[in-house]
Design brief:
This protein is α+β, with helices and mostly antiparallel strands and 167 residues long. Helix content is 40%, strand content 18%. A hairpin with a 6-residue loop joins strand 2 and strand 3.
C-alpha cells in the first residue's frame, strides 16, 4: 500500500481549491506561495492521488427559485429491519443511485442511514418514498424532517494547520 504524503503547500492548494476552484493557476500559485509550474504539477498530483475527487459548480437555490421553484429538501432517518452487511449495502446502493438523494450516510447509533434529499415538490417526494422505502420490505422506519430554511451549506473540509479562507 502506497502512503500518501503531502506538505504545507499541498494543503494550501487544497484549501484554496475547495474555496474556489475557478481561480486561475496564477492566482492559486500566488496565494499558495509557489510558482505557477509548481502549482500545476502539484494539483495534477493531488488529482492523481484522488485527494481532489471532482470539481463542481455550487448553484444558488434562492436565485434559481424564481426559475425552477424552491423544491422540497428533506433530511431522512432510515432504520432497516435487518442490518446485516448485505442488507445495508443493498439499501445504500439503491439510495445513492437515486438522483433525488444528495447525501447518504451510514450512521450509528440510532437509525441506520441519514439521507438528504431534494425533490421538486411533495408528489415527487412521495414517488421517492415509494421507490426507496415503501417498496422495500427491509425498511422498518422512516422519519422525515422537511427543511424550512437552509441557514448554512459549506462543502469544505477543515484542513489541519490552516485558517479557514473567507472572502
Amino acid at each position: 500500500m502506497n502512503e500518501i504524503t503531502i506538505d504545507d503547500a499541498d494543503m494550501r492548494l487544497l484549501d484554496l481549491l475547495q474555496t474556489d476552484a475557478s481561480q486561475s493557476n496564477q492566482t492559486l500559485a500566488e496565494r499558495a506561495h509557489v510558482s505557477p509550474p509548481t502549482s500545476l504539477r502539484r494539483i495534477k498530483r493531488l488529482r492523481a492521488l484522488g485527494l481532489i475527487e471532482r470539481e463542481v459548480a455550487l448553484l444558488s437555490p434562492d436565485r434559481l427559485a424564481p426559475l425552477i421553484g424552491h423544491g422540497l429538501t428533506a433530511l431522512l432517518e432510515i432504520t432497516l429491519e435487518r442490518q446485516g452487511a448485505e442488507e445495508l449495502d443493498a439499501f445504500e446502493t439503491r439510495a445513492v443511485a437515486d438522483a433525488a438523494v444528495q447525501q447518504c450516510y451510514r450512521v450509528s447509533p440510532g437509525p441506520d442511514f441519514m439521507l438528504v434529499v431534494h425533490t421538486t415538490d411533495m408528489p415527487a417526494y412521495l414517488a421517492l418514498a415509494q421507490r426507496l422505502f415503501t417498496s422495500n420490505a427491509n425498511v422498518r422506519n422512516v422519519k422525515a424532517f422537511f427543511s424550512i430554511k437552509r441557514a448554512k451549506f459549506d462543502p469544505r473540509l477543515p484542513l489541519p494547520g490552516l485558517f479557514t479562507q473567507t472572502e
